Amino acid sequence: MLGLAVFAAAQVNAQTFCGQVTGAVMVANDGTFLGEVSNEFNANSIFNEFGPYGSEFSQSSIFNEFSNYGSPFSMLSAFNEFTTTPPLLVKNNQVIAVVSLNDVLTGALNPYSLLSCK
């Protein structure tokens, strides 16, 4: 029973988290638009694997490990664990998080956690 309760709590927490970030836009520290946190059918979604912001081949995607925004070596990347200039999540004209593997940054949101909202 305890396992079921923990699973149910995790689902509620994921739903709460996704509710908070859905509708946010991602903006690189250089001002480049990097997509929206929205359903995978939205052309501007970071979850649309065929769109400019979700494709692993797009230069505007954090999921392209060779782009400035997805490389583990770029200072603009969400996946550089040492960056101090990661992408920002903005909702209602307010920065709600920095998207980064750098857990030293205040308000850092692990980019992998966004995948739970897919």
Task: Please sum up the structure shown.
This protein is of the alpha+beta class and 118 residues long.
What report would you give on this structure?
This protein has 118 residues and is of the alpha+beta class. It has one domain. It is 17% helix and 16% strand. The protein has one helix at residues 2-21, and strands at residues 25-27, 33-36, 88-91, 94-99, 108-109. Strands 2-1-3-4-5 form a five-stranded mixed beta sheet, with no helix packed on it. It is globular.
- Low-pLDDT runs of 5+ residues are 1-12
Major sheet: size, sense and barrel closure? Answer: 5 strands, mixed
Order of helices and strands: HEEEEE
Our count of helices gives: 1
Work out the strand percent: 15-25%
What share of residues is helical? Answer: 10-25%
Average pLDDT for all residues: 89
- Rg of Cα set: 14 Å
Strand order of the largest sheet: 2-1-3-4-5
Terminal CA distance reads 28 Å
- Count of distinct strands: 5
- The gross shape turns out to be globular
